[in-house]
Design goal:
By secondary structure, the chain is an alpha+beta fold. It contains ten helices and 26 strands. The longest helix has 16 residues. The protein is extended and about 95 Å long. It starts with a strand and ends in a 7-residue tail after the last helix.
Length: 531
């Protein structure tokens, strides 16, 4: 069945997008995760990947063209499938005839629907965490009939992660509580109603219940969908705030909000010594922040401004998260750490670069040495399947490159057969085009092993997540000058630490260790790579 792909909304403010580049053409096979196109938004040029498999049957927006969000971008389906119905060429469904007598009851029903009185605000169960689906009211700090001011704590709500204070964003009277203490309800269920104390409470409850519980399909039938419009946010109004008044707690039990308890524990404050200024003498956040022990000097609480920045996840970042998460939680990783003597490698590089028009880096030496070692240990250069292990006798070296949105892994094909200068030229070319987002999918496909080098950033040792479907990845640190022991004497030397992460399903510890021994012989005696 054909799948219609529309112009995606790749940023929160995006209203239209421009197709910068198509990586597939009509007739090409598309796999889930393939990059279909680069799309320019109002913020950046981003890669857009396929979420379906099949053949690219139709392109709706050509390169260089701009179209609103949700415009037909492409159609993916089975080879030869008829897509005319999706292009306006099919027969439109005939709407059922509705008589005036049938329509009248529906109209009457809509007209009879209760409306929310003026100056009444409906509060629903909030989504207090990214994974929250329902919440439990742990305690109400206000009761029906109480006056509520903006910023007052209405209730404590238990989510799937923590118990959190929920504050009011409106002024008025608490007219109705929809979820009692100890009860649970899904996100967006009716939690409370706040409004004028003289408001018609029954009408408000009826209208609020209808608005939060009406099935989506009924709403869609009642009226055509309208574009979502963000509700205006009222600007804060400056007003004098009275100093909090401490209220004596006469119950004999220490009552404190979860946040206050946490702050008190962090600061080593005994709650029994704190006088609460909340309802009924309840200890709240400001009481802990303004707390001063008997005889201590009072310090003003800092008046800093909290600041955050939100960035929409790019398609690259989402892909990285998806693939590395899958690797980390499906492949049993283990790590082998080694430290190599780099004196000979440093001398080798200096002599090699003395050749006119020649310049190689330590990374080029590591890539070449690793490729040669993999030829001798194909088990490390392998891929795991549920029913078999495939050993690669060719070496396609993935080289991790950092870019603004994360990292990409271009592939140096047949790295063991390339001379050092050619390896250096390819890696440099890949790195430059990666940062400009000019790499093609083919240049990032087919790796059999991966190297990640953070030595240029001064990182001495680290571990990496395996770049599946590889069975291993090598993490390369910086070359460090340090005291070393040679021939029983302490001398100044240069060493480099490397960490091999292996998938234990396909690479055993002894296998990985033998590979590192071979790699050591090449790096510590680099002239052997030229023999």
């Amino acid at each position: 069945m054909a799948e219609v792909i529309n112009m995606p909304r790749l940023s929160d403010t995006m209203e239209e997008g421009t197709v910068a580049t198509w990586f597939k053409k009509v007739g090409d096979t598309v796999k889930e995760g393939d990059i279909l196109a680069e799309i320019e938004t109002d913020k950046a040029t981003m890669e857009f990947e396929a979420f379906y498999e099949g053949e690219l049957l139709h392109i709706g927006i050509e390169e260089g063209q701009t179209a609103p969000v949700d415009t037909l971008l492409a159609i993916i389906g089975e080879k030869g499938e008829d897509v005319s119905a999706h292009l306006g060429g099919g027969t439109a469904p005939v709407a059922e005839e509705v008589t005036a007598s049938e329509a009248a009851p529906a109209q009457a029903e809509v007209a009879a629907a209760p409306t929310l009185p003026d100056n009444v605000e409906v509060i629903t169960m909030p989504r207090l965490s990214d994974t929250m689906e329902e919440g439990t009211v742990a305690s109400w700090l206000k009761k029906v009939g109480d006056t509520v001011n903006e910023g007052d704590i209405l209730a404590e709500i238990e989510t799937d992660k923590a118990t959190m204070e929920f504050e009011a964003f409106y002024n008025g009277t608490l007219l109705h509580i929809g979820i009692q203490e100890g009860d649970s309800a899904p996100v967006d269920s009716l939690l409370a109603i706040i409004g004028d104390k003289d408001a018609n409470v029954e009408q408000a409850i009826a209208a609020a219940t209808a608005s939060v519980s009406a099935p989506v399909e009924e709403v869609e039938k009642a009226a055509p969908a309208a574009p979502a419009v963000a509700a205006p946010v009222a600007a804060p109004v400056a007003s004098p705030v009275a100093a909090p008044v401490a209220v004596q707690n006469t119950s004999g039990r220490i009552i404190a909000s979860p946040l206050a308890k946490r702050l008190a524990e962090e600061r080593g404050i005994q709650l029994a010594t704190v006088q609460g200024s909340g309802d009924g003498g309840r200890i709240i956040k400001r009481d802990i922040e303004n707390y001063q022990a008997s005889g201590s000097v009072a310090f003003a609480a800092p008046q800093g401004i909290e600041s955050v920045e939100e960035m929409a996840n790019s398609q690259m970042r989402k892909t990285i998260a998806k693939r590395l998460g899958a690797s980390k939680f499906t492949a049993p990783h283990y790590y082998l750490g080694v430290e190599f003597d780099m004196e000979n490698a440093m001398a080798f590089r200096k002599q090699y670069n003395a050749i006119p028009d020649t310049k190689i880096s330590f990374n080029d030496i590591v890539v070449k040495a690793t490729a040669l070692a993999l030829k001798q240990h194909p088990q490390v250069n392998s891929r795991w399947y549920d029913d078999k292990i495939v050993k690669h006798h060719h070496v396609h070296m993935g080289v991790a490159v950092a870019v603004d949105d994360g990292l990409v892994v271009p592939v140096v094909k047949f790295a063991d057969e390339l001379p050092l200068p050619q390896i250096g030229a390819q890696v440099k070319d890949f790195a430059g085009r990666a940062r400009d987002k000019k790499l093609t999918p083919a240049e990032m496909d087919g790796s059999t092993f991966t190297i990640s080098n953070l030595g240029m950033f001064g990182i001495e040792t680290f571990t990496s997540i395996i770049n599946q479907p590889n069975s291993a990845i090598l993490s390369v640190g910086a070359i460090v000058e340090k005291p070393v022991v040679k021939n029983g004497q302490i001398v100044v030397g240069h060493t480099m630490k490397l960490t091999l992460a292996c998938d234990h399903r396909s690479v055993d510890g002894a296998t990985g260790s033998l590979f590192l021994q071979t790699l050591k012989s090449y790096i510590e005696n680099p002239i052997t790579m030229l023999v």
